[in-house]
Specification:
The structure is a single chain. This protein is an alpha/beta fold. It has one domain: TIM Barrel. Helix content is 37%, strand content 18%. It has eleven helices and twelve strands.
């Protein structure tokens, strides 16, 4: 059969009908909101390259969590800016480190808020790299012990999920072993299993003060050209005990999200990264596109590709807009 018997527009005739036959759902329940914690008091400082995203001092986190909770966003991922940096990143695993303080503040504000913590060295080291550096080389195996110590420290402070992001070989296994040995078998791991050496991280590096002091991260983050390698990375992390997988970035890698979704049945997250966020913000500020429509379309595309969860700086705005979505 064909036209005029078949008329595809029939199912688009009204807002109610369009909503009922929508194939891909988008909900605040799928969002994870990134937060940047800093030392000091009463700090609520907008990040220049990420309009609408802020550095928060620990004493201001309760107010932020109240707002996030009211929007039915169930989870946050925490990034911390240390008071000082050194070759190893000592504050990364200190009991009174900035992320450890932030975890406790978030849980005090809302015990039901799921707290995910990013585990990497780049924000805490004076060289800005994701691992221990010796003679200009980023050392893989020597870094694993530090990652385990950081994970245990976060778990002790009250984190629910550990998310290692450094793309060190064996990082999931090392963290799983460290957590289990410390009695934190219940803590799950959301692995940045597939993290590309992307141009879209620039605004985040300003926000996290994590630009490398030399070189780049292409010896450990993936080349954007590869997808078969991505599936190998994911398979290794599944074997090492990852509970959830992540693809980062999201928009330039929708095909990768789809391939991972088809291959693995673990919950899958995608990180709608800072550069993707800032591009929409910049275009909207110039009146070049409708921000609301562009954001909802973008997040729907990530879900349609196969992501169960989306880490996004748009989360609060999107949650508000979804309340009035047809």
């Amino acid at each position: 059969m064909s036209f005029p018997t078949i008329r595809m527009r029939r199912l688009r005739a009204t807002p109610t009908l369009r909503a009922m036959v929508r194939e891909t759902t988008l909900s605040p329940a799928q969002f994870i909101y990134p937060l940047f914690a800093v030392h000091g008091r009463d700090v609520h400082e907008e990040i220049a390259s990420m309009p609408g995203v802020y550095h928060h001092s620990v004493d201001r986190l309760a107010q932020e969590i109240d707002e996030i909770s009211a929007l039915d966003i169930p989870a946050v991922i925490l990034f911390g800016i240390p008071a000082s940096k050194d070759p190893v990143g000592q504050e990364n695993f200190a009991d009174d480190g900035i992320v450890q303080q932030a975890i406790r503040a978030v849980k005090a504000a809302n015990p039901d808020m799921l707290v995910i913590t990013d585990v990497c060295l780049c924000e805490y080291t004076d060289h800005g790299h994701c691992g221990i550096v010796r003679d200009g080389e980023i050392l893989n195996d020597e870094t694993l012990d530090i990652l385990g110590r950081v994970a245990v420290s976060h778990a002790r402070a009250g984190a629910d999920v550990i998310a290692p992001s450094g793309m060190m070989d064996g990082m999931v296994s090392a963290i799983r072993s460290a957590l289990d040995e410390a009695g934190y078998e219940r803590i799950s791991i959301l692995s940045y299993a597939i993290k590309y050496a992307s141009a879209f991280y620039g605004p985040f590096r300003e926000a996290a003060h994590s630009t490398p002091s030399f070189g780049d991260r292409r010896t450990h983050q993936m080349t954007p050209a590869n997808v078969r390698e991505a599936l190998r990375e994911a398979q290794l992390d599944v074997g090492e005990g990852a509970d959830m997988l992540m693809v980062k970035p999201a928009l330039a890698y929708l095909d990768v999200i789809r391939r991972v979704r088809e291959r693995f049945d673990l919950p899958l997250a995608a990180y709608n990264v800072s550069g993707e966020y800032s591009m929409i913000k910049a275009a909207a500020a110039h009146g070049w596109l409708d921000e609301r429509r562009a954001v909802i379309e973008t997040l729907t595309a990530i879900r349609r590709a196969g992501a169960d969860l989306i880490l996004t700086y748009h989360a609060k705005d999107a949650a508000r807009w979804l309340q009035t979505l047809e």
